[in-house]
Amino acid sequence: MTAALPPLRQIPISEAARLTPPKLRIKTDDDVACWRDTRGYHDYGLFLRRLNESVVGYFLPYSSPSMTQATTSILSMLDKLDSWINEIPPLPTPQRFGNLAFRTWGKKLEDNVDSLLTSLLPSEFAASIPLISPYLVTSFGSFTRMDYGTGHETSFALFLLCLTLIRFFEPLPEQERDLVLVVFLRYLRLCWRLQDVYRLEPAGSHGVWGLDDYSFLSYIFGSAQLRESDISVTTILRRPLPPTNLYFLSISRIHEVKTGPFHEHSSQLYNIATGVPRWAKVNSGLFKMYEAEVLGKRVVVQHIPLGGLMEWDITSSDPMKPDRRTHALAEAVQAPWATPAAVQSSFPSSLVSSSSASGSTRFPSSSMPAMAPTAAPWVTTSPSPSHESSLVERRVPGPIVPASMPLGPAANTTLRPMAIPRTDSKNQPMNAVLWLRGH
């Protein structure tokens, strides 16, 4: 339960006023690894866990017994953004994806974000607006590429986290439940309308091998709602589904926008339904999958601004701050495919190429980092001279920690790899069940 989790820290407004606005910081895979060691990343992990635990056993439609003025205000803001869609109709253009009117909608958001937040926040929070506005702007898609994906959904969750860190929202179970079952649900419906009206392209879609073209958090929160229920996981295969939780709503949304057999266009969700027996396992496994496939992918998180309230406490001169380092057992047992040779052999030859810039072997972005099979990456070794400088700073911090385990930088969670290959030794695609079964 939420009461068993550590409290979310508070950042006083007086301190926030001295912070610099967030900016794009992730440019390389090493930057992703650095981010996983920051305080902001751990704040986000704890925030998601608290939201997750707050909705266990609560279903839709949900009527908040004590909705706060803060919740009412943010719903009004989302309603206003929705009304802009009526004011900016789609243009009669022939493109399959991306109606140019979406750029007009986005430009209006960029021009009015400060006034929106001024109306949302009491005057004493005014100093935080430059620290929060970048997350709101990036929450609804890319206005350049005219697409939407899990990175934009993550931006909105970070927006809610920032508002909680400064205590516009209080980290109490009742308010956290409202954030999921009232605020996030309203945001989700707004994004669905944006996708339909402006025909937004999925950002970085994995096709049939992805969980969902656009969303991920709705499945995490929805599986939490069902975690202690007697409803079978296979229920999602029977239509129509009742709109009683975010998981069922997301499945129903897929049926609205896709045609054909479910097991063909949504194979990952089908594999979960047929291969994972309990919602508790679905919920814990989706957290692992979210961290690896969303937060651990540079192409997803490189467009998310970081810093400010989302503390980026890594300096170029000291990328491995001791107080942020996650300690592991030096003799940890790794998966049999964790050696570089095994990783390379697990990919089809067509997916392995040589980098023209460095001459090194290049793998798909989901491959395991090449490292020794018997030692944690920060354990002192004797690297070859050509790689010594790069290995000094290499590390793979642990995942967002399950609720039953200690949270924070000292949690011993590095026994699970950060990612798995998308193909097995027979070059067959791997599926989400591997995540939910703990590989």
From TrEMBL:
Q: Where is the composition biased (Polar residues)?
A: 379-389
| Family the entry assigns | Belongs to the PTPA-type PPIase family.
Give the subcellular location. Cytoplasm
Q: What is this protein called?
A: Serine/threonine-protein phosphatase 2A activator
Any idea what job this protein has?
Answer: PPIases accelerate the folding of proteins. It catalyzes the cis-trans isomerization of proline imidic peptide bonds in oligopeptides.
| Pfam families per UniProt | PTPA
Keyword annotations of the record: Cytoplasm, Isomerase, Rotamase
Q: Where is this region: Disordered?
A: 349-390
Q: Where is the composition biased (Low complexity)?
A: 349-377
Q: What class of enzyme is it?
A: isomerase
Report which superkingdom the organism of origin falls in: Eukaryota
Reaction(s) catalysed by this chain, per the record, are:
[protein]-peptidylproline (omega=180) = [protein]-peptidylproline (omega=0)
What Enzyme Commission number(s) does the record list for this chain? 5.2.1.8
Q: Does the keyword Cytoplasm apply?
A: yes
